[in-house]
């Protein structure tokens, strides 16, 4: 059967099969190999099946655009689907020898060529490429005439082609996963292919046309082929891959959140990723912290975790336990079986959200409201609450099994239980403090707003009063005369105040002069008071230009 997987050679010799017949045989052969190949692995290897599939002639069949004997568009699609299915059936075996053989024959590079190339000519002439930007390697040669372009549109619109492309990428992921120690085989072309597909509008990925399956394979390729390979990670970050994943996380359906968060968590092992996460801004200027807290709230709502209306902890004994976990209770299990608390970590997204927020830093998050900060208090203590939950299960299992620990262990379990409850109470106090602070802040803002409103009203009233007074004075002569009298009276009173202040200064000067002369006389210590001192005092007083009473001088 493998001997038929090669192009039909047009020679001058007589041919046993016509091109159409030969193609039909190829389709049947490849369909049969989808079932026979996994059952005859050794025969597949001995017959060099990987070489036939991955050699240039074999890849021509896969590309389905340069083989001259394929004349039917329907047959082209069938060939792609069948050959991709036969590849996938072999890779799905997870047989190391088969996967290694495919890799050695260059299957990964051939898949990348098929997945990556997008000719500019086709992009300009086909708006449909915005929906599905994965085309064949030789489509630029095939789509020359307008009729051929129409046929390519029909192929891309067909859902089976999208399914085939999903199979192709799924195979690539499995091959790379089988060669975990060689993620570098993905290379620059593979990273570019993923970045190109991630740039597709996320809203169009979940419109029911099957694109979400391609996105699922893309996320698997990120986890298998980029995470852990430093070169691939750096190139992925340079291409703004973190931003694209966060955009996808914001717009994707909830069923995809766990996979995206897993990729982001693994990428955070690269120190450069944290700055990308902190820089990202989504719709309405949403930060990554606010996005992750929102997903945490949705996850707790889905799990049925008890919370008050303001988001605070409702039960200090069960700060993280959901409705399903609480209804199942604690069942004694063997020592090698994980308990409900441990299984809960892998069954929901809270552990991944905690890991991401821990990498970002709980104190460095921006754009959080008071309600988000209340939830963040719980997230920050997630590991402590989970430890207390595990110890509570241990205590409950011992009680159900009728085992009494020794006194020191029993006291230690009691202390651990009280510490967990006290921690929950402490978190509640912190949450209430945040809410109280937010309430006081809102009250202050409200008071400032009302003060501003009152000031605006007061200014409006003053303006109205001034306008009414102006209108009254200009329209009523008696009021104008009264205003004039008030103005004159005000001017007269202001002048009297100036005169009174001047007289008070002169009195102060006279008192100072009297004190000066008395001090001069005392300084003479009983000697005769000479005329020179009096003349000096009079001269000083005249220089000061103040009035004085001559009788005061004579008295002195």
Automatic annotation (TrEMBL):
Keyword list, A-Z: Cell projection, Cilium, Coiled coil, Flagellum
Key word Coiled coil present: yes
A single GO BP: positive regulation of flagellated sperm motility
Span of domain Cilia- and flagella-associated protein 69 ARM repeats: 1-112, 180-394
Signal peptide: none
Superkingdom: Eukaryota
Coiled-coil boundaries: 427-470
Record bears the keyword Coiled coil: yes
Stored InterPro entries: CFA69 (IPR048732), CFA69_ARM_dom (IPR048733)
GO terms under cellular component: non-motile cilium; sperm midpiece
Protein name: Putative cilia-and flagella-associated protein 69
Lineage, uppermost ranks: Eukaryota, Metazoa, Echinodermata, Eleutherozoa, Echinozoa
């Amino acid at each position: 059967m493998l001997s038929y997987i090669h192009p039909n050679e047009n020679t001058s010799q007589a041919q046993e099969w016509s091109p159409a017949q030969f193609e039909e045989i190829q389709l049947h052969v490849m369909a049969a190999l989808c079932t026979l190949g996994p059952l005859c692995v050794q025969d597949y290897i001995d017959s060099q099946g990987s070489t036939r599939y991955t050699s240039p002639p074999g890849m021509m069949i896969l590309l389905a655009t340069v083989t001259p004997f394929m004349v039917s568009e329907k047959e082209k699609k069938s060939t792609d689907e069948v050959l991709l299915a036969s590849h996938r059936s072999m890779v799905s075996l997870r047989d190391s020898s088969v996967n290694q053989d495919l890799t050695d024959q260059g299957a990964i590079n051939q898949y990348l060529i098929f997945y990556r190339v997008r000719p500019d000519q086709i992009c300009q002439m086909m708006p449909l490429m915005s929906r599905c930007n994965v085309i064949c390697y030789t489509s630029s040669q095939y789509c020359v005439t307008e009729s051929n372009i129409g046929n390519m549109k029909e192929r891309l619109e067909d859902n089976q082609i999208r399914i085939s492309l999903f199979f192709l990428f799924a195979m690539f992921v499995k091959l790379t996963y089988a060669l975990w120690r060689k993620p570098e085989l993905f290379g620059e072309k593979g990273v570019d292919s993923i970045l190109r597909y991630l740039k597709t509008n996320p809203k169009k990925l979940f419109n029911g046309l099957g694109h979400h399956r391609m996105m699922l394979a893309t996320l698997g390729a990120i986890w298998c082929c980029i995470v852990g390979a430093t070169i691939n990670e750096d190139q992925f970050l340079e291409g703004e891959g973190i931003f694209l994943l966060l955009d996808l996380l914001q717009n994707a359906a909830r069923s995809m959140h766990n996979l995206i968060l897993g990729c982001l968590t693994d990428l955070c092992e690269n120190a450069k990723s944290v700055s990308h996460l902190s820089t990202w801004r989504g719709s309405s200027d949403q930060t990554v912290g606010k996005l992750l807290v929102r997903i945490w709230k949705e996850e707790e709502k889905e799990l049925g975790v008890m919370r008050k209306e303001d988001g605070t902890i409702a039960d200090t004994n069960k700060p993280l336990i959901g409705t399903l976990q609480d209804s199942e209770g604690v069942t004694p299990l063997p020592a090698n079986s994980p308990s409900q608390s441990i299984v809960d970590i892998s069954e929901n997204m809270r552990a991944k959200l905690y890991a991401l927020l821990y990498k970002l830093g709980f104190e460095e998050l921006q754009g959080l409201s008071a309600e988000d900060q209340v939830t963040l208090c719980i997230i920050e203590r997630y590991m402590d609450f989970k430890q207390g939950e595990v110890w509570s299960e241990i205590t409950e299992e011992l009680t159900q099994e009728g085992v009494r620990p020794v006194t020191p262990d029993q006291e230690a379990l009691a202390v651990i239980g009280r510490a967990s409850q006290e921690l929950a109470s402490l978190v509640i106090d912190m949450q209430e403090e945040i809410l109280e602070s937010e309430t006081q802040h809102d009250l202050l803002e409200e008071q400032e707003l009302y003060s501003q409103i009152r000031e605006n009203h007061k200014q409006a009233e003053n303006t109205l009063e001034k306008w009414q007074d102006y209108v009254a004075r200009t329209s009523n002569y008696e009021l104008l005369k009264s205003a004039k009298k008030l103005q004159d009276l005000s001017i007269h009173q202001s002048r009297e105040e100036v005169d009174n202040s001047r007289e008070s200064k002169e009195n102060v000067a006279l008192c100072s002069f009297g004190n000066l002369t008395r001090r001069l006389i005392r300084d003479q210590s009983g000697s005769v008071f000479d005329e020179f001192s009096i003349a000096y005092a009079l001269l000083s007083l005249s220089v000061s230009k103040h009035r004085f009473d001559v009788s005061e001088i004579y008295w002195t």
